[in-house]
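Look over this entry.
=====
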Amino acid sequence: MAKSYPRHGNTIAGGTKAGWMRLQDQVHVACYIVGPVETNCYLVWSPATREAVVIDPGGETEEILADLQRLDLSVRMVINTHGHADHILGNKEIIDKTGAVLAIGAEDARMLTKPVLNLSGWFGAPYASPAPDRLLRRGDEFTVGEAVFTVRFTPGHTPGGISLIGAGLAFTGDTLFAGSIGRTDFPGGGQGILLASIARELLTLPDATVVHPGHGPSSSIGAEKSGNPFLLG
């Protein structure tokens, strides 16, 4: 069931059951908080072209599918910021209904189809996503209408974690949270690697960049640079 987190920036109720919807010049963003660990799934679309991408569909896809129809959107791509189960459980439903391409960081690709690697097997409910159609690497780009997004390689939570940067936004998956950072105790994780990823790929962004993480409320790069206890020292 979607729920609202404290909002960062200009957000409005948009007639959707999403936790919130943010309307910006180039793209609109809606957030759906899904699953037992309250994963943030994002719908990002161009108000001009009605093209959309879905980021980290972690399950409970009924609401997002209803909004795709209500808003008359065409989903070009489903993107997983990393391969853990709570970020991929809705892949098949979204792809089957929309015909979208599935993309993930190249180093996490094998996690999609292997329950032991995506951690679903650990909890007695093994899930195998469809295999990816596109492998994303540092510097790759994709568009949502006129907005250009760039892939940044941010490993540390997983070996192939990525962040998606564009239109003044950073979708950081489980790399950077508001006031925290991602776990590094899962297989393939490493705190030193994660902190280096954040410093190199995220903290170099403009302070006004809005951070949309994989869990919890949104933030900004400036707020995390000045107040995140894991990044001060």
